[in-house]
Amino acid sequence: MVKPQPVSGPVRKQFLVFGSPALEEAEIQEVVETLRSGWIGTGPKVGRFEQAFRDYIGARHALALNSCTAALHLSMIAAGVGPGDEVITTPHTFAATANSIVHTGATPVFVDVDRRTQNIEPSLLAAVITPRTRAILPVHFAGRPCDMDPIMKVAREHGLKVIEDAAHAIESVYHGRHIGTIGDAACFSFYVTKNIVTGEGGMVTTSDDAWAEKIQTYGLHGMSKGAWKRYSDSGFVHYQVLYPGFKYNMTDMQAALGIHQMTRIEPYARRRREIWKRYDQAFAGLPAELPAPEEPGTTHARHLYTLLLDLTHLKAGRDAIVEDLKAEGIGTGIHFISLHLHPYYKDRFGFSPDDFPNARHISERTVSLPLSARLTNQDVDDVIAAVRKVLLRNS
Ligand SMILES: Cc1ncc(COP(=O)(O)O)c(C=O)c1O
Prior knowledge:
Layout: H1 25-37, H2 44-57, E1 61-65, H3 68-78, E2 86-89, H4 95-103, E3 107-110, H5 125-128, E4 133-136, H6 148-157, E5 161-165, E6 173-174, E7 177-178, E8 185-189, E9 202-206, H7 209-219, H8 252-261, H9 265-283, E10 288-289, E11 298-299, E12 305-309, H10 318-327, H11 343-349, H12 357-365, E13 366-369, H13 377-393
Parallel strand pairs: 2-3, 2-4, 4-5, 5-8
Antiparallel strand pairs: 1-9, 6-7, 6-11, 8-9, 10-12, 12-13
Pyridoxal-5'-phosphate (PLP) binds near residues 93, 168 and 191.
């Protein structure tokens, strides 16, 4: 009798969602309690979250907002960035980084990244500085700190402000200093896929009292300090509108998640570090470049584990590999398709694909694997099995 051939099915039947966050009972209870309290808007829980974040980073001020995008926008307003100004950043980032520059009326000026670190290349900065340049906006890609010493040096030499996109970088440390204490302001994200989450949410840290005041005021319609309390039992206070502000305030519902997530920053980071190590071991020798090791004297926040596919040794392109992984039950992310390749930036600024060759190289090859602290050992085994299967099948 002929034995039936085993049918090789997908590695997983239940799809593994990329970036699904770890959420625990304490924050679920806190949200429920917040709902029952009758005070679900901006309130004391936001203050508690700000204080915990400030203490963790070691910053003078931490101001909670409803996104990192809002944090970037208001930091630039605090820096006085406006129409006619230029802000230098990298195209190897999420749309929010450059969009927020455009929102101020300023022009984003891109410089390429280093292919290995995927962070802004500091030696390219001086050449693009003009009399219109107001600020440098480095992005700590995947949680790897940018090389801040040369960035700060060139900024100070030219009288420029430094606003850091620290959306991936809550745990990052550079030469003994926490990211969030180096530039003039740093902007963090608590979006659902981030290292800690509030659903949507962001935070600015700064050591400048005037910036802090401006960011807080601009974040709630430009109303004078404490206006959020106007319906509380401390009594109605007349507010004054000081600026044409925005509706960027964080709510207590979001902060209810944040104050408990804060207590797990380090355990979650340890878990991601463990997963990272397993991936590094399992993927050595596959047709893909692994993330570069952490630079000496720094802490990498391990937000994204990105493979750069070796397209010369693969029969399929990146998008086909992503589809294949999906068919195996594994969700992935792409961080990022360089902004200069997107229609708005390409058309508005007339970019060609090769203007930023390293960002383009990464755009065509990168794939991010699940790395959340929520992953079980079985999930990690499945990701490893699927990646090995798909890359070996296509090589
Ligand atoms: C590099 C980078 N900057 C900014 C943002 C924007 O963060 P948020 O979604 O909190 O506005 C993201 C977000 O996802 C990001 O990856």
